[in-house]
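does this look right to u?? flavin-adenine dinucleotide version
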Amino acid sequence: MKAVAFDYLAPRDVAGALAALAENGAKLMAGGQSLGPMLNLRLVRPRIIVDISRIAALRGMEERSDSIWVGAGVTHAEIEDRGSGMLRAVAARIADRSVRNRGTMAGSLAHADPAADWPLALSLLDATVHLRKAGGTRTVPVDSVMEGAFTTRLAEDELIEAIEVPKLSPTARWGYYKFCRKTGEFAEASAAILLDPERRVARVFLGALNGAPRACHDLANQLAQGGKIDAEARARAIATTAPDLDPIARRMHAGALDRAIKQVFP
Ligand SMILES: Cc1cc2nc3c(=O)[nH]c(=O)nc-3n(C[C@H](O)[C@H](O)[C@H](O)COP(=O)(O)OP(=O)(O)OC[C@H]3O[C@@H](n4cnc5c(N)ncnc54)[C@H](O)[C@@H]3O)c2cc1C
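got this back:
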């Protein structure tokens, strides 16, 4: 199957993109790595594609005093090449280099695939999402973006301008593990852990669920207090956080959690 016919616009600035996006039936395209297949399967039938990949103002990635600013046009490959820490490690395991050369963090958030890497990693890191539409801007926590599988709370005429990721302190430790059949594939199960005592942060999240990533609060509290996380504690956390998982998915998530914990406490 091929995509329905559409007009293609490639504005050179954000104002042009927002004006085009306000048109009826317009849809943004960043890297096209998720949108392309959706178009070909006719799961989306836009009248106008607004390609934002050539907007220089969206392509910046910079270190600020307390955060890393990632513009909506920054690709996974650029984060892999120029990023550091957890962002770099997560980017490097997304798909293969050809997908990473075009796909973006913002596109991944807006696509809201439950198995994707950025929704999990950015929830763990408590990132902030900067949104813009013709009428103004707003800033929201990343965990308020994804409503469910492939659905977000973004308005149709709203664009993710950038994602701002808080910096970790030098003593912070993190673990990130995704189970997939082949290297670089979407996760079958995933888990992520962050322990940053200097900032009084302890978080544990599960990904690749039926919707958005979910926090395991009890496990995070246990980790913060230096408690031992045994198989029973992991199983209990998964049963509480994701009671809807079938037995096989529960085992895969328990394995992912175990491995993420071992990255923090080898
Ligand atoms: C073979 C293959 C393997 C993959 N494996 C993985 C993997 O292991 N892990 C993983 O996480 N992902 C994986 N992906 C998905 C990949 O990361 C995509 O790049 C990503 O999901 C979408 O980013 P994009 O920039 O290509 O967005 P696009 O495909 O251009 O757009 C996706 C959606 O986001 C919207 N959108 C894009 N940019 C914005 C914006 N700035 N503001 C608002 N809405 C926007 C579009 O309208 C569209 O609805 C894979 C993809 C492929 C093709």
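The pocket of flavin-adenine dinucleotide is lined by residues 27-35, 72, 94-95, 99, 102-104, 106-108, 110-111, 116-118, 154, 159-160, 184-186 (CB under 6 Å). idk if thats expected tbh
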